[in-house]
Design brief:
alpha+beta; Arc Repressor Mutant, subunit A; Homing Intron 3 (I-Ppo) Encoded Endonuclease, Chain A; elongated; 155 residues
Length: 155
């Protein structure tokens, strides 16, 4: 039977840069250790460096989630992770206060101001959230928030 290290590295494609996890993965590689499924990069860290201290995360210098190359990994806190993400511009809201997005300024908006006005009119006429959601191709929660002025408050 394979030792843990042999079984792990059987799922790694070593290249000149990143060592890509080729086994099961979501965004990150997934590796089964006993009955637990762990992130592959965390397993790589532990095999090469020992246990991860409580409260610390295994971060990627290369910003490549499937990478398990030990020298591409480092330990840090959640704050370190967020600062690293901001510095490398991996986050929607980079640094500083969150911009004030409203209505069509919201990056992922699906409704127009005209849609919002129409949704509120139809709701007053008795249309259900479900019917409005189907008509405007958004979820019922989005419709609820429009109708009850929890979103699109400026319209």
């Amino acid at each position: 039977m394979f030792e843990l290290r042999d079984r792990f590295y059987a799922h790694v494609a070593k290249g000149d840069g990143c060592w890509e996890w080729t086994g099961s993965r979501d965004r990150y590689g997934l590796f089964r250790v006993g009955k637990k499924i762990k992130k592959a990069h965390r397993s790589a860290w532990e095999m090469e460096n020992g246990p991860i201290p409580d409260g610390l995360f295994v971060l990627h210098r290369c910003d490549n989630p499937p990478c398990v190359r030990p020298d591409h990994l480092f330990l840090g806190t959640q704050t370190d992770n967020m600062q690293d993400a901001a510095t490398k511009q991996r986050r929607r809201y980079r640094t500083g206060p969150r911009p004030e997005y409203r209505g069509t300024l919201t990056p992922a908006h699906k409704l127009s101001e005209a849609d919002v006005v129409r949704i509120r009119e139809l709701s007053e006429r008795g249309w259900t959230l479900r019917r409005l959601a189907l008509e405007f191709h958004v979820g019922q929660t989005a419709i609820f928030k429009v109708v009850h002025r929890q979103s699109w408050t400026h319209v």
